[in-house]
From TrEMBL:
It comes from the Bacteria. InterPro entries: Ala_racemase_N (IPR001608), D-amino_acid_metab_enzyme (IPR051466), D-ser_dehydrat-like_dom (IPR026956), D-ser_dehydrat-like_sf (IPR042208), PLP-binding_barrel (IPR029066). Belongs to the DSD1 family. SMART domains: D-ser_dehydrat. Residues 259-348 form the D-serine dehydratase-like domain. The keyword Cell inner membrane does not apply. Keywords: Lyase. GO terms for molecular function: D-serine ammonia-lyase activity. GO terms for biological process: D-serine catabolic process. This is D-TA family PLP-dependent enzyme.
Length: 367
């Protein structure tokens, strides 16, 4: 029996997402070995959004995390994480929610990103009124062109302004280079090093004006092995815990194991070479072109069309796949796929033994 198959598959309705804790632990150990110093690991939890997954990392001595939503930040508070960076600049009601998180989970040190003075002033005002000081990281645009300020004199001036705002305490720089995902590691490293140069220069400028040396949180899954070689830099991979087919193809230098698998079934045989599966847009991330999933036990199956609840695939001979046949698949992009499921099946020894709630798929848990 293959590692992903279930003895009790007849008890699992489809479509479903299964996770494999032993393989998750192996991936956690592998990422620790890659960075060497666990204190320099700050994994992003946007991939799993599951309290139990965070707990597995905490059990392995990982205590710093990154997240993108208030719900993910609260999940980490519930899990007992010590240090949580909300890698997002809160605006509007999110500021108050972040403040409430710091009050509800006092054992967790929360921080967030800022990239402009107006947002900083708004955040500072609420925290100062509550007689609290929020640690913040200056968000830098190193080529992603999504958020952040370009590192340089303007960024230095903003960092100095943050230091003067009651309610805020600038503690570091955040540089996300998610636009760098070249398959060729040497090319990726060259681009990553070039993007990081102005970050290092800005850090030096900050110390030159008499402020404490800033912490630096840099990179994501494609570039974390490169940043791992920089002294003191915190690395933020995320996908490693489950891995996916997309990164398996495009990051051959990273050797993680699949630890999350989709289950789908043949629901109709169209003709001699076409099948319909119950795996539509609502069951696997659909932001990328096909193929959005590859099947471990039917690698020949190639997608022809997909709608909300259906996936039509082409095979050599449909006689091999009668109605009810179970396909086990790995998504191209696991992070948004997880968010499509309220619960995941937990597999040990080829048996689905429990379910974990994907608690942070919602925009709100309690706060």
């Amino acid at each position: 029996m293959n590692w992903y198959e279930l003895h009790n598959i007849n008890t699992v309705d489809s479509p479903a997402l299964l996770v494999y804790p032993e393989r998750m632990r192996d991936n956690i150990l592998a990422v620790k070995a890659s960075v060497k110093d666990v204190q320099r690991l700050r994994p992003h939890v946007k991939t799993s959004k599951i309290t139990e997954a965070a707990a597995l990392m905490i059990e392995e001595g990982i205590h710093k995390f990154k997240c993108a939503t208030i719900a993910e930040a609260e999940m980490l508070g519930l899990a007992g994480a010590k240090d949580v960076l909300l890698a997002y600049q809160p605006v509007g009601p999110k500021i108050g929610r972040l403040l409430e998180l710091t009050e509800q989970y006092p054992d967790t040190k929360y921080s967030c990103l800022v990239d402009n003075a107006a947002s900083a002033v708004a955040i500072a005002a609420q925290f100062a009124t509550a007689q609290k000081v929020l640690p913040v990281y200056l968000d830098l645009n190193v080529g992603m062109n999504r958020t952040g300020i370009v590192p340089g004199s303007g960024a230095l001036a903003l960092y100095q302004e943050l230091a003067d705002l009651p309610g805020l305490s600038p503690i570091g720089l955040h540089a996300y280079d998610g636009h760098l995902h070249d398959v060729d590691f040497a090319v990726r490293k060259e681009k990553c090093d070039a993007a990081y140069e102005p970050v290092a220069a800005l850090a030096q400028m900050i110390t030159d004006v008499g402020l404490p040396a800033p912490r630096i949180v840099a990179g994501g899954s494609p570039t974390f092995p490169i940043h791992a070689e920089r002294q003191g830099v915190e690395c933020s991979p995320g996908t490693f815990i489950f891995w996916d087919w997309g990164y398996q193809q495009h990051l051959p230098d990273q050797q993680f194991d699949y630890a999350a698998v989709l289950v789908t079934r043949v629901i109709s045989v169209i003709d001699g070479e076409r099948l319909c599966l119950d795996l539509g847009h609502k069951s696997v991330a659909a932001e990328n072109p096909q193929p959005r999933v590859v099947f471990l036990n039917a690698p020949e199956a190639s997608p022809l069309s997909q709608s909300e609840e259906h996936l039509v695939v082409k095979v050599a001979d449909t006689m091999q796949y009668p109605v009810g046949t179970v396909f086990y698949g790995v998504p191209y992009h696991i992070c948004p796929t997880v968010a499509l499921y309220e619960r995941v099946g937990v597999v040990e020894n080829n048996t689905c033994i429990a379910q974990w709630k994907v608690v942070a798929r919602d925009r709100k848990i309690m706060i």
